[in-house]
Amino acid sequence: MDDAGMVLRVQRQLRVVRGQLVFALPKGGKRRVVPLTSGVLRAIREHMRLFPPVEVTLPWKDPEGDPVTVRLLATGDGGRLYTGDLFHKVVWLGAFREAGLIYRKRADGMHALRHFYASVLLSQGVSIKELAEYLGHSDPGFTLRTYTHLVPSSHERARQAIDAVFGPQIYDTARPQ
User: Fold this and answer.
1) Which one-letter DSSP state was computed for residue 6?
2) Going by fewer Cβ within 10 Å, which terminus of the chain is more open, N or C?
């Protein structure tokens, strides 16, 4: 996390290789930078105050890989590490139970948050190319094919773009041209 640049640097993920947790490159094998808002940064700082990051050492990429030590923001009690599946079962579904909500498979999963993020960015005019970078997609065409149904109609934005260049012309019919 880079407070000054207001970005999150996605550097690694936890993976299970031959039954052992390792650090590996993020989804798609691509590191990336994701913009953050000041509100999200405040929430992260508050989380860090309540739950200080835990230093964790794991091998890189393979159980026999070189050890890498980093501070993780999201761990369980006593620094417990969660794979995606375990996080889903323990933390995510636990939050639904605690809140008294009914969990609907597919619609309420962690992956749905990724789609929500994409839809919010697209609705605010973020380009497919930028969204592809934030999501770690190597091909913006894949992002477009996946999220094209979320791209809002651009008729009004197209009109505004043309008006910004040419401006609405007001003709005075009383004066000869």
Assistant:
1) T
2) C
